[in-house]
Each structure stands twice: as C-alpha cells, then as structure tokens.
Design brief:
The chain is of the alpha/beta class and 207 residues long. The protein has twelve helices and nine strands.
Amino acid sequence: MKIIPNIKNVIFDLGGVLIDWNPDKVYKEVFKNDTERMNHFYNEICTQDWNENQDAGYPMAKATEERIALFPEFEEEIKMFYGRWDDMLGDQIQGTVDILKKLTDNPSIKVVALTNWSHETFPRAIAKFEFLQWFEGIIVSGQEKTRKPFPEIYQLTLSRFNLKAEESLFIDDNLRNIEAARELGIQSIHFENPDQLEEVIKNYINN
C-alpha cells in the first residue's frame, strides 16, 4: 500500500472492527430469544454505560456485586456478563484483519490500536488473536483508567506513540468515538464492515 502524503499513522479500534464481541451470543440463549426481555436487561441492568465503567478500569467483581444488590432477581444473568465473557468473544473479523495486514506490512505506516477494554479480560484476547502482536502498540482503556470518547485517551495515544493528529487516521465502529477524534483534528472513518472500510480507506491510502 502507498500512503497519501499527510497520513502516516493508522489507529484501529478492536471490538466491532477487528474482533467480534457480542453479548447476544450468551443472552439469546439465556432469555430464550425473548428480545423484549433481553433488551430490558441491556437497557436497564447490564447497560452499556455500566460495562464501559469496567472498560475504564473499575473492578469487574465489585461492579457485579453492586449490580446484583440493585437487581437481585437477575443475579444469575448479571454474573454471566463477565462469568461467560469468553463465550461472548467471537472470531476475528477476517476482512478487516486482511486490511490490517497490508498496512502493517508497509514500513512507512505506523499502526497502533486504541480500545475500550477491561484490563482484566484483555489478556484473554491477546492469547487468542495473533494479529494483536502486529501493532506497534495498543492503548487499553482499562489500563489507563479512562476511555473513549474522553479526549484524554486520544491525546495519550498521540503522545505515547509520537503521532501528530493531522497525520493520523482513526477507525472505529462507534460514531460517538469518531466524532470525539475529529474534534481533536484526527481524520477518521466510521467503520461499518470490511468492504466499506476497504473502499473508504482509498481516500487516504492507495494500493
């Protein structure tokens, strides 16, 4: 791949871009495909905000205990959120991994990762996915005690890997995180699927 002049760095999100992680893999079975009950669980009990608090470094065991105290009738289901975390972790998203390989094979491009991920579970991902070794470095929110979309974690990524915002391209499946990166002057792609990424990335990188 050949870089367009001012793009020298690519910053990848992991979950939803390179790795398929989805609690539906567990809870569709648990709730017997009762979508209404499952959505209630996600929206009111084990919510996105609650999970992201652990992504920012809060202990999972403590978070689980606190949630059970609030919703004792869902004790077993709450325990499953981290107790069956490995079952929620799917395969690598091969099309994106192929794009990553092309980028990491080009010595003129620095490729790093920035992920919202608990420091307690990230070692399991490292053990499972060989491609995580390809990055020049990975910022894991749980290790840094902050997370996307807070500006501090983007600024940390830029400073730790000696990147300039205007020379960097950020790829994430969460529009909120994309908008936060753009506010800091980082060029960004809102990831939808590997085919879309391969097409859109041509605006920044030529084969």
